[in-house]
Design a protein that fits this description.
Helix content is 73%, strand content 1%. The protein is mainly α. Its main location: membrane.
Length: 306
């Protein structure tokens, strides 16, 4: 009888232990299903239909995908890949400085110079602003006729620069405002990674005669391989999903030069007299698959053991 009575509390405790994790996971799982899983599945369903939000959906099969992937005489094919080209240009121009600059700043702050906390806060503060606030600040600075930057350029006797209306200046402007806005987040991630590198490794490198540059390439960078892979993937995804900066600062111009893919998907799905939600959903699915492939390749390359 004693052995039977002793096992009962253990069963009750085991039941509670199984329930407790579900209570913690439950709220997150609920919001994941409602706000991520369900919209993703529903968007995939919409991509196979024609729908303008007002009438009933009609099944279109692969027509929406054909218009953007292999029917080359379709205007949507041309505009989709033109927008993808603009997005790719932004990614190529923005991702390298969004990796290199925060890394160098993090290394400098990690050396614990005087005022390190001030500089940490200074570089991180812009990331707390909304994208609308950031773009409005930079429009005020870079406006061709009334911008503060062109005002001081004019005092030097130089011509005003069309920062927001001509290429390549529009790309420079978009990249600058994005770097200023987001380097703080990557800097914090690199600082966290630098804190995990043992000081003994640097001491051993010094004993072997390594200078600061050699220590950076042979100790710091290998020690940041994990954080570097994460930052690279997340920064690339964020750059591919850029929308607000070109929408607010350049309106996609000049012409369609800065009309990036997310902005074009928004225009197809939500603007005009006949919005095409199904086509916009198909474009989103294609973009999602492209981003998934790029992320897998990046993560595989960055996490490969040397």
């Amino acid at each position: 009888m004693e052995s039977v009575n002793e096992t009962r509390p253990r069963k009750s405790k085991s039941w509670k232990e199984k329930l407790t994790p579900l209570l913690f996971i439950g709220p997150h799982l609920f919001f994941f299903l409602i706000f991520l899983a369900y919209p993703t599945i529903y968007g995939l369903v919409i991509s196979f239909h024609n729908w303008n939000f007002f009438g009933d959906m009609s099944f279109a099969g692969l027509e929406n995908y054909a218009n953007i992937l292999w029917v080359t005489d379709s205007l949507y094919f041309e505009y989709f890949w033109t927008a993808f080209r603009a997005t790719f240009i932004f990614v190529i121009l923005s991702v390298p400085p969004l990796i290199i600059i925060p890394l160098l700043i993090a290394v400098a702050i990690n050396a614990k110079p005087p005022g390190q906390n001030f500089f940490r806060a200074l570089f991180y503060a812009p990331s707390l602003l909304s994208v609308v606030t950031v773009v409005l600040i930079w429009i005020w600075l870079l406006d061709t006729n009334a911008g503060l930057v062109n005002y001081y350029i004019g005092t030097l006797g130089l011509d005003a620069i069309p920062w927001l209306t001509r290429t390549p200046w529009v790309w420079i402007s978009l990249v600058l405002m994005t770097i200023w806005w987001t380097i703080g987040t990557n800097m914090i991630l690199f600082l966290a990674g630098l804190g995990e590198i043992s000081d003994q490794l640097y001491e051993a490198a010094k004993i072997d005669g390594a200078n600061k540059i050699q220590q950076f390439f042979h100790v710091t960078l290998p020690g940041l391989k994990g954080p570097m892979a994460f930052v690279l993937v997340m920064t690339t995804l964020a750059s591919f999903n850029v929308m607000a900066q070109p929408q607010l600062a350049t309106g996609g111009g000049p012409g369609y030069e800065t009309r990036v893919l997310i902005l074009y998907i928004y225009e197809v799905g939500f603007t005009g007299g006949n919005p095409r939600a199904g086509l916009a959903a198909a474009m989103s699915v294609v973009l999602g698959m492209i981003l998934l492939c790029i992320s897998l390749v990046q993560f595989k390359l960055m996490s490969r053991e040397k």
